[in-house]
Design goal:
By secondary structure, the chain is mostly helical. Helices cover about 70% and strands about 0% of the residues. It contains 5 helices and 2 strands. A two-stranded parallel sheet has the order 1-2. Helix 1 packs antiparallel against helix 4 and helix 4 packs antiparallel against helix 5. It is elongated and about 65 Å long. This is DNA starvation/stationary phase protection protein.
Amino acid sequence: MNADTMTTPSINLTFTASAALSDNLQRVLTDLIALELVGKQIHWNIVGSNFRDVHLNLDDVVDIAREGSDEVAERMRAINAVPDGRPATVTAATTVPAAPEGEILTGEGVAYIVSAIEAVVATLRGVHDDVDSEDPTSSGIVEDLTGKLEQQAWFLSAEVRKPVR
């Protein structure tokens, strides 16, 4: 039997995301991809006091964003949604603020990356309830990412915070 005469069976997955669920997960995906990119941009160009610690901590943020984007995209495929991680899509849709060009001092880099993380967390929190109402499994991914990113924002912000007395 040759490939032309073989038929491929049609297999339908049991759960299909609504357009709203797909759109919400796409928003998360877009912001995670953007966070990964700007995290590396800052990682490569940060200079100043406590450089090494901030430099390494930025890799943690990038890893969370990279692994999270893959998990969200694969979840989308598992529920019959189509992820779109093309650069033009990410650029047009992200809520992550644009990264500064060139070298950046550690304090400014920390302030920027915390604002970028907070933008992603706002997206995660903004879609959570709608995602949860349709698909608790996807909601679990959103919740996990929210906790990890909020922890990173805390770690990084502690680099420049002054104690409240």
